[in-house]
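no rush on this but wanted to send it before i forget. theres a chain ive been looking at and ive put its sequence and its fold in token form underneath. please have a look and point out which stretches look like helix strand or loop to you. thanks a lot i owe you, the record is right below:
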Amino acid sequence: MNVKTSLLAAAIGQIVVGAWLGAHGAPALAQQKQVVGIDRVVAVVNNQVITASQLAKRVEMVTRQVGSAPVQLPPADVLEKQVLERLIIERVQEQKAAELGIRVDDGQLALAIAGVARENRLSPEGLRARIEAQGDKYDSFREQVRTEIVRVMLREREVDSKVQVSEADIDAYLAGHDATGVTPPEYLLAQILLRVSDKASRQEIDLQGQRAQELERQLQGGADFETLRMQYPDNSTGDMGWRRADELPEMFAVVVTPLKPGQYSPLLRSPAGFHILKLIDKRGGAAPASTPIMQTKVRHILIRPSATLSEAEVERRVADIKARLDTGKEDFAALARQYSADGSAAAGGDLGWIYPGDAVPEFERAMNALRPGQLSGPVITPFGIHLIQVLERRQDVASPERQRQAARQVLRARRIESATDAWLRELRDEAYVEYRLGSN
């Protein structure tokens, strides 16, 4: 099993949970939109339509997600356009996935929903009860989760699989870090992006540039960054998270590094459009790179649903294996070779030495709670159900091989983000889209 952090789990946790399990009490805006024009077509995307009821439901979800956060929503018509553009991009991705035959079976879906429940400290039954208590249909939730998984799988196929990092790239990256002997600082960033299509006319580019300049003037005049971001239906990306300078496009790194928390960058122009960055916070920059790191030697047995093994049967098999191991008369490695459903089975389930961040969060939390020699109970992750045993712990500095692996991950993540943005713009530009919002 590859125990690297799962893109699937991240997608489900951030997109679906936020929308369906956000704060209660959506404002009247969303409630009103459910009453008017329920069956109107508001957009045509290739050979499919987006209806007013679908748009109203998503507006309600977005409004609920914002909840009591100190963020001022844009006017109703602006919010509608912003949400509609998001729906169009999602629909184009779904159509591409269907064209390529990408599907999610019920076993994958059940594991993903179990992950959503755990992240919200609920059982799957409790998750269903909460969704239905909010007035939502559980079947609709399941299909939304399925759709999100399909989009992640599509991106992994169309973008992630094509991103390459050479040994020369890694050499260059390490050369820029090892000389200092310190961990580079990290920057917590937010962004306003006014997108520009690759096929935009000069007039459209100039208009978007004027909007960006007006945004810059308002920020300089003391306007709130987040409020302004919400007012533009251009798929602004908002919070970019913690990034090192080398994880940013060069033009971003140059302007961000001298900023102090709370300050803004000047207006920037890239092939994607017009950007304004805000530095929210900064950390690091002084700890030695050779600081010892806690490593854990661990092994596991993984059982996962399949066409011939239902989720209930998986749970029974894991419970049976756990009971056999608890007697002390069965050999862990022998049972792993017999039952485990991943590549570590041949090695008796041995995953070797694990560094912090190597495993998905559910696996790592369970592993960290164990003493050497201790066996876990069933641990559910997006990959299936695990029994985990910690063999040993040690503190050590990262080996040269580990440093190269970490560098490869950083470079790859940076390139995937840039490639994903370009790929989504290309999909959107190639689609036939007819807007009907405001008609009929």
